[in-house]
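Q: Could you fold this chain for me?
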Amino acid sequence: MEIVTQTPTAKAPAERFNGDVYLNMIETPAEPARLATALVRFTPGARTNWHSHANGQTLYITDGVGLVGTRDGDVVRVSAGQTVKCPPGEEHWHGGTDTTLMAHIAMVVGDADGDGTTWLEPVTDEQYSKALATVTRGEPMRRSVRE
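A: Sure. Below is the predicted structure, expressed as structure tokens.
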């Protein structure tokens, strides 16, 4: 058994994130296991780039309020205690709202080549503003968010 009492906080790389985002790695994939887990903290307005995961991704929201959006325009507002499951290959992004931070534990099962994440282009300010407007208007969510 190993007890890890502290993991260092690192600023997330600017080529994959917009705004101030901070990471604490919880688990890094090591054979034979392929689970990558991190605590990710988004300041207001911060978000990931568009990305997908070969084997999907699970996000457990630990603090604050945030958004998760997909290429087809689905946007969900998430808050502490909720879990979002992004299916394999789905291009999506996640981050804080314009006025609130959001923190989540991100869990990804990697593939033979690493964590299985494909990083894409940044979410534009226009896309982000549209996502905020969508959840502000209260449009129905087409994908479930489990509590």
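A (continued): The radius of gyration is 15 Å.
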